[in-house]
Amino acid sequence: MNGWKNRSTWLIKIWFEPQAQDLDWIQDTLEARVNQLADSTDVFDKFLADHINLAEIDWDELREALTDDEDELDDTEDDMDGDFDSAMTSAGFGTDEDYEL
Q1: Is 33 exposed, middle or buried (CB count within 10 Å of its CB: 0-12, 13-18, 19+)?
Q2: CA–centroid distance for 45 within its chain
Q3: pLDDT over 90 for what percent of the chain?
């Protein structure tokens, strides 16, 4: 399935677009929210909580994939000079001097 261990793991990547350092916060927040739903007196909340399987999410797979993605980004950033004016000129926007009156 689309390169991910399961749908629940894939959904974290799709919905949150996290970076590796975000995963602990996302996991804690989801657990708290699901617990709130489960503790609710509302039957719809309990129904939703019963259908969310947080144990199925492979947090280690996510962390590894996101760390790999960040490493790849670091490698491509090394190839750029980081000069804003050069980037804007390359993109066809010119420099500040081009727009002075």
Answers
A1: middle
A2: 26
A3: 60
Task: Map out the domains of the chain as residue ranges.
Answer: 1-60
Q: What is the DSSP string of the chain?
A: -TTSSSHHHHHHHHHH---GGGHHHHHHHHHHHHHHHHH-S-HHHHHHHHH--GGG--HHHHHHHHHHHHHHHHHHHHTS---HHHHHHHTT---GGGG--
Q: pTM for the whole thing?
A: 0.66
- Amino acid identity for residue 3 in this structure: G
> Mean pLDDT across the chain, nearest whole number?
84
pLDDT tens per residue across span 18-36: 999 999 999 999 999 999 9
Report residue 2 as tokens: 């689309």
